[in-house]
Amino acid sequence: MELEDRILHTIFSVLFLLFLFERGYFQAKAMRVSGEARKIRESKRKLTTTILLFLIAQLWVIGSFIYLIKPAILEWTRLPIPSWIRWLGMIITVLGMVLEFSTQLYLGRNYSTTLHIREGQSLVTSGPYRYIRHPMYTALITVGVGIGLLSSSWYFLLPFIATGIVIAFRTRREEEAMIEKFGDEYIQYAQGTGRFFPQIRKKQNGNEEV
């Protein structure tokens, strides 16, 4: 492995582990605060689904750790991309992680690992939510693209592609639930924000309009 490859692999390893820790910490905290862990245990169907998804995820994580220790084992998954794109992937990954951490801070106790609106939940419109309605999803997609480019391996793109498909189906249901909960307040908020990216400002008669 060349020197630059070693440096990029080390950077990837650090960022990847930080990302796993960050996601694990906030998800465990959300399940503890909301009581979701207890609800899953009480529902056999949810428990079975959760265990199955956990096992599938663990298989991928095991492969990921093998790559961290001995990257040559997954050499067959490598994408033929130049090193400057891998460096760009590092920047994209860091930006995505910063966005995710910021989103978690502004969400606070409103964050949930499942699709449901809790009693007493408030509508967050500050921080990243001032510009986009689903910054968490934007962050996950951004990190996924960045990790894939930085590792130069399609193996690390697979779970994020699956996540993107889930997001595409989940977003509409989530917004319907938010409208049901907050009504016109959420509709007005949605009109002034983008779904995953900030709205493009258009100029009309010399004035900027969102």
The gist of it:
By secondary structure, the protein is mainly alpha-helical. It has helices at 3-34, 36-42, 44-69, 83-107, 135-151, 158-182, 184-191, and strands spanning 202-204, 207-209. It has a single domain, classed as Four Helix Bundle (Hemerythrin (Met), subunit A) (Up-down Bundle).
Walk me through the topology.
Layout: H1 3-34, H2 36-42, H3 44-69, H4 83-107, H5 135-151, H6 158-182, H7 184-191, E1 202-204, E2 207-209
Could you please describe the fold and organization of this structure?
It contains seven helices and two strands. With 210 residues, the chain is mainly α. Strands 1-2 form a two-stranded antiparallel sheet. The longest helix has 32 residues, at 3-34. The protein is elongated and about 55 Å long.
**Assigned CATH class:** Mainly Alpha
Alpha-beta classification: mainly alpha
Architecture in CATH? Up-down Bundle
Number of strands: 2
- Estimated radius of gyration: 19 Å
Read across the widest sheet, the strand sequence of neighbours is: 1-2
What is the terminal-to-terminal distance?
50 Å
Q: State the shape.
A: elongated
Mean pLDDT: 79
* CATH topology tier name: Four Helix Bundle (Hemerythrin (Met), subunit A)
Order of helices and strands: HHHHHHHEE
Keywords for this entry:
mainly alpha, 210 residues, disordered C terminus, two-stranded antiparallel ribbon, Four Helix Bundle (Hemerythrin (Met), subunit A)
